[in-house]
TrEMBL record:
It comes from the Bacteria. It comes from Escherichia coli. Residues 1-31 are annotated as: Disordered. This is Small terminase subunit.
Amino acid sequence: MSLSPARQHRLRVQAEQAAREGGSVSPRIGL
């Protein structure tokens, strides 16, 4: 895994925001 902590954090924040906005709008995250 060549994902930097910053990138992982960003993905996590994005996933959380997406979940807050519309629930399962972006299933590509795979929560």
